[in-house]
Amino acid sequence: MKSLQSKIVLLMIGAGIILSVISCTQDPKKPGYEYMPDMYRSPSYETNSPNPLFADSMTSRKPVAGTVSRGHDFPFAYQNTIDAYEVAGKELHSPIEKSAANLGEGKRLFEIYCIHCHGSEGKGDGTMVQNGKFPPPPSYSNQLKDLPEGKMFFSITYGKNLMGSHASQLSATERWDIIQYVQTLQKLGGGSSDKATASVDSSKKAAPADTTKANKNSDKK
Ligand code: HEC
User: What would the mean pLDDT of 151-165 be, rounded to a whole number?
Assistant: First the structure.
């Protein structure tokens, strides 16, 4: 009896060794034989792959109209008009507290999303401008030194003339973090007004019409 048991154990160990050897393949791109492969890789569509299930063949779908995804921002309460821009300048204020952590996060995000146009001190001399790829934006500490935070949020959300909307890249909280940092740059003083050709005054009048056109992401706000 004992010998039969040890034979079975030996047989199982042998089968295990043989299985583990033959289940491998030479091709490093193939996983070899797998037990229930669907459990490792779900048969789902890649975000940007064509999709036969939808008439427009797009896998990446927009949220159902009128819904707000859990954990996402509520729609921006201001229309993209020059009047709403003025109202936002008066009544829209940051809901986040002024703190070193928020300021630090704002600086970090500014250096990812804004610095290449606006420059490290926000004087409109980022690398895009220095390389001649982009006209200089107005300086935060000069033409924009008194710009209220509500208008900043409005313009970052909808975009303004040559500046695109950043609403799809940055959550509302992240935009407010960045604004906290921009406010420290506003206080720097100086700034090269002669360089800033994309001046605020001339662009303001054209803002709503132009931003609507320029801002392809406005529905994602
Ligand atoms: C592609 C270059 C570019 C990028 C990137 C960019 N901006 Fe701008 N920004 C501009 C230009 C140009 C203007 C001037 C728009 C105008 O008044 O015509 C501007 C204007 C502004 C204004 C003034 C808006 C107003 O109401 O007058 C603020 C504030 C601002 N940008 C903040 C930001 C922040 C914050 C980021 C990063 C999240 C950013 N910008 C990214 C080019 C850019």
Answer: 96
